[in-house]
Specification:
Elements lengths: L1 H23 L16 E5 L5 E7 L7 E8 L5 E3 L3 H4 L5 E6 L5 E6 L2 E6 L4 E4 L9 E7 L5 E8 L3 E8 L5 E3 L8
Antiparallel strand pairs: 1-2, 2-3, 3-4, 5-6, 6-7, 7-8, 9-10, 10-11, 11-12
């Protein structure tokens, strides 16, 4: 009887020891180094960490975003989201956020709220609030690419918060009662 009790206690203690040792095993994070040109910096990481977006600055006017990029964090593959001519044009092109699967990047295209689609490799401008025609930008997208938030600009210092339903062809959803930013 004592042998069975001892053996059972030995098994229980061994199981706990294995669990404790397993819990203490940690993986060392991998550090990836990206080398960018044109003042490019990482802007945002997808919620699952699989993709990142980066933006830089227009060489003639550093206040204008340019050189938007999509980065696959697993392979290191970088996709330029605009042509060099677009980046040098003096018009805002920015990548602000990316979906979990990397199929959609949101930001600014030609000074307007825009979505870059991997399937076509092109940008699509989204509708703006009537009267807010001087620009805008989408700042965030849901991980599944269904909804996005951003702003439409009127003049240099007035912005109206916006919400787009991307499942419904990028329809701008009216949200009454929001203050100007």
């Amino acid at each position: 009887m004592k042998n069975k009790t001892f053996f059972c206690l030995f098994l229980i203690c061994s199981a706990f020891a294995v669990q404790i040792m397993h819990a203490q095993v940690t993986t060392t994070p991998k550090l990836y180094r990206f080398v960018f040109e044109n003042g490019i910096n990482l802007q945002q990481l997808s919620d699952n960490g699989a993709f990142a977006v980066a933006i830089g600055q227009n060489a003639a006017d550093e206040s204008i975003p340019a050189y938007p990029q999509l980065i696959d964090t697993k392979t290191g593959n970088i996709t330029d989201l605009c042509t060099n001519e677009e980046n040098l044009s003096g018009t805002a092109y920015a990548a602000m956020d990316v979906t979990n699967d990397g199929s959609m990047v949101v930001g600014s295209y030609n000074n307007s709220p825009g979505v870059w689609l991997k399937s076509s490799g092109t940008w699509v401008n989204l509708p703006k609030v009537a009267g807010y025609s001087s620009g805008g930008c989408i700042h965030a997208v849901t991980p599944d690419g269904k909804y996005a938030v951003g702003e439409c600009n009127f003049g240099q210092f007035s912005a109206y918060p916006c919400f787009w339903n991307l499942e419904d062809d990028g329809v701008l959803v009216e949200l009454d009662g929001l203050p100007l930013l």
